[in-house]
Write a structure and sequence with these properties.
With 309 residues, the chain is α+β, with helices and mostly antiparallel strands. It has one domain. Helix content is 32%, strand content 16%. The chain is built from eleven helices and nine strands. The chain is globular and about 60 Å long. The relative contact order is 0.17. The structure holds iron/sulfur cluster (2 copies).
Length: 309
């Protein structure tokens, strides 16, 4: 059955892997090993304890397997802010823009495909996506702890699903880093906050720019972050754009969005989503940034200040 599902997923330009549900116990063990092997920082503990959900949900079907689906994202989206007569262009890692839509689309077509065959699927968004992708052979880690999949580089979304499809193969793999990482330190050297460590598998995600620029604007950036570090409206692209494993995936046409002076003003004011004009709200939603709109004022102000406006 999974072979047919694999063909259906490939028909949508996406890439799957499958693990028998029994492997969830091994994933739990991996997480326990991480806790004992590394001195985890507070953010890493929060992800493990509060974001991951490793207990099986109650479902109307017997869960037999976990299917992982990787879908390609464009490598970035551009946003043009018009402010004080200037135009400031900023990238957004495109994974933000399809973070919600990619799993929804996949779930919908999988449901339509499986339902007539009396199989079921349900999204499992709180499973550890990267770890499952690597353990199931779908991808490999980069030194920057991002997951890479052949054909997509790191510009992708990974969506996990519980299903009742029997898993007759077990592609369980060792946790591995890409071959391209051997002898390469490009991401280490290009990280503006020295978050990627030469002597440790886990990055120090408490120093990663993303950790700071996704927060509400009431939290200022710490003084130690150099103003020149900021490179995206939210998130950071430095370790991905310098990566040789991504080079061939960065030529696709980039979509761009314009924010007028009035719209930029509303975003700088820190208005909540429901206070934005319908048109502006729609634009923010299309960018997949509704959840982070309260981060815009601080992030924009620091970049505008750097540009002298
Ligand atoms: S930049 Fe080099 S070391 Fe870093 S993830 Fe890419 S290949 Fe690996
Ligand atoms: S996203 Fe940016 S700050 Fe975070 S590890 Fe990569 S380069 Fe460093």
């Amino acid at each position: 059955m999974f072979e047919l599902v694999r063909q259906e997923i490939s028909r949508h330009g996406e890439k799957p892997s499958i693990l028998p549900i029994e492997r969830l116990e091994d994933i739990k063990q991996d997480i326990e090993d991480l806790k004992t092997r590394y001195n985890l920082n507070g953010f890493q503990k929060y992800i493990i304890n509060d974001i991951y959900e490793l207990d099986l949900p109650e479902t109307e079907f017997e869960i037999r397997s976990i299917i992982l689906v990787a879908s390609a994202s464009p490598w970035m989206v551009k946003v043009n802010f018009h402010w004080k007569g200037k135009r400031i262009t900023l990238p957004i890692p495109a994974t933000y823009t399809d973070f919600i839509s990619a799993p929804n689309n996949t779930e919908q077509y999988l449901r339509e495909y499986l339902s007539p065959k009396d199989y079921h699927v349900i999204a499992a968004p709180r499973l550890p996506r990267k770890l499952l992708a690597v353990r199931s052979g779908l991808g490999a880690y980069g030194r920057n702890n991002i997951c890479y999949v052949d054909g997509f580089g790191s510009f992708l979304n990974i969506s996990p699903f519980y299903t009742d499809i029997p898993c007759t193969e077990d592609s369980w793999c060792e946790i591995r880093q890409m071959d391209s990482c051997k002898g390469c330190k490009a991401c280490i050297n290009n990280c503006p906050t020295s978050s990627i460590l030469d002597d440790r598998f886990l990055i120090d995600n408490e120093r990663c720019l993303t950790t700071f620029n996704e927060r509400d604007s009431k939290d200022d950036f710490p003084q130690w972050i150099d103003m020149a570090s900021h490179n995206s409206l939210v998130g950071c692209l430095r370790c991905q754009t310098i990566c040789p494993a991504n080079k061939k995936h960065m030529s696709s046409k980039v979509e761009s969005y314009d924010f007028s002076e009035e719209e930029t003003g509303s975003l700088l004011e820190g208005l909540a989503m429901e206070q934005l004009s319908e048109e502006l709200k729609q634009k923010v939603q299309q960018l997949g940034l509704g959840y982070w709109v309260n981060a815009f004022p601080r992030n924009l102000k620091v970049i505008f200040a750097r540009e002298g406006i």
